[in-house]
Every structure is written in structure tokens, then in C-alpha cells.
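Let's sit down with a protein and look at its sequence and fold side by side. We need material for that, and I hope you will provide a protein of your own picking. Once you have written the record down, we can walk along the chain together.

***
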Amino acid sequence: QVQLVESGGGLVQAGGSLRLSCAVSSPTSSMDYVYWYRQPPAKGRELVAEIRRSDGHKYHADSVQGRFTISEDIAKNLVYLQMDNLKPEDTAAYYCSANGGGTVYWGQGTQVTVSS
């Protein structure tokens, strides 16, 4: 069973930055995709960013393009989400996820709150 543990969330003022980390219990190189999702209060979960491991292609949602950056440290089995110029609408629970051989794994999430 692959386990993912997120960290780095917190309270920040608008315009500030946070870096989320996700520790993966299995080598990220064995995963097909790694993702960051978020779920704002009273809303559904949405994809924020992903890395397609076959070629390293990265995707960022339009709402975060230019402000958020997904990256990974393969040697340490860590996935990051650098979040800059945060806005109140970025307030959400952020989840790390990985897809390996068609099985999707989820972390428990970390809360990010952006005050105006």
C-alpha cells in the first residue's frame, strides 16, 4: 500500500507564498502520474497540477498558471507544490495523489488558508 503524507500548509496573507511537500512511501519513479488537487470549502475537488512521469510533462490549471509550480525530488520520493502570489480563492484543503498502474493513492490533505 502506497502512503502519501502532505505537509507545509498553514495561514498566509494574500500575496504570500507557501511550499507544500508530499512524502511518498514508494519510489515516485514507479508512479505514472503525481498530482496536487485541492478542495475549497463547500466545493468539489479540483486538479491543480500534475507531472506525467513518462516524459516529465507538467500541467498546471489555468487558475494557478504562473503562480504555482509542481516539482519532485525523485531521490527523496518527494513531490512539491510551490505556491506564490497566493489569493484568498486559493483557500482549500490540498491533497497529494499518485497513480501507479491504474491504482490511485491519496494523502490525507493539508489546509491552506489565505487571508485578504
User: Anything to note?
Assistant: The chain has a mean pLDDT of 96. The chain is about 0% helix and 55% strand. The two ends are 40 Å apart (CA to CA). The first strand starts at residue 4 and ends at 7.
